[in-house]
Amino acid sequence: MINCQKGDSSSYQCVYRPNPAEEAGGLVFYILTLGAMLALVLFIRTQVPRELLVSLMHDPIPGTEGMLLRGLMFLAVAIGLSPVLILGILTYKQLGRLINHWTLRGNLETLNVSCGPLPFIGRNHSLSTVSVESLDVESRYGTSGLNGRGSSRSFKLVAVLKTGVNLCLIQGISKEEEAKTLAEYVDWKA
Questions:
Q1: Which of 61, 130, 137, 156 is at a distance of 20 to 30 A from 1, taking alpha carbons?
Q2: CB 116 within 8 A of CB 96
Q3: How far apart are CA 12 and CA 15, in angstroms?
Q4: What is the mean pLDDT of each run of 10 residues along the chain (190 residues)?
Q5: Strand, helix or coil at 42?
Q6: Ordered strands of the 12-16 beta sheet
Q7: Is the full-model pTM beyond 0.70?
Q8: For residues 98 and 7, is the Cβ–Cβ distance under 8 A?
Q9: CA proximity to 123, closest of 93, 90, 88
Q10: CATH number, residue 154
């Protein structure tokens, strides 16, 4: 959903909010998978006797063999927890796509893009309109569903800088019309 308003003769503000119905399915999947993994970790944790864990932590074998055993134990824990960490990051990303909105504010001199309320690294930009050649819409194809059998298409609003760099301002726009509407509305050269 796009909501654009013009201020005085040279200022504007556009707010883009993704469709919650399209984003909720992915979030439910990630939360359920993360919950199942955490339940598995807790189940395994309750099945290992506490005495075994304590004995492994207190140098069960003297010398380098004991150090190697402890190192392998910590490596196993790190490998075991890495899927939980990855799923946690993916869940946060999907939650951000569900909750966040992008605000474009500008005038003849600047273009500001902010993403909130959940913070994301690299999503807020402030550009001088002198450094921007044009705003373009790019499409991206991806796979979705189990085993990547489905396909999806999303769009992103890109600022083409005069230096030749393409800077992504908003990504994950589900409809091409919405991306083109944003690109056309944010026209500081009018």
A1: 130
A2: no
A3: 10
A4: 76 78 71 79 72 61 64 74 78 80 82 84 81 84 56 81 87 83 67
A5: helix
A6: 2-6, 12-16, 101-106, 110-116, 125-128
A7: no
A8: no
A9: 93
A10: 2.30.29
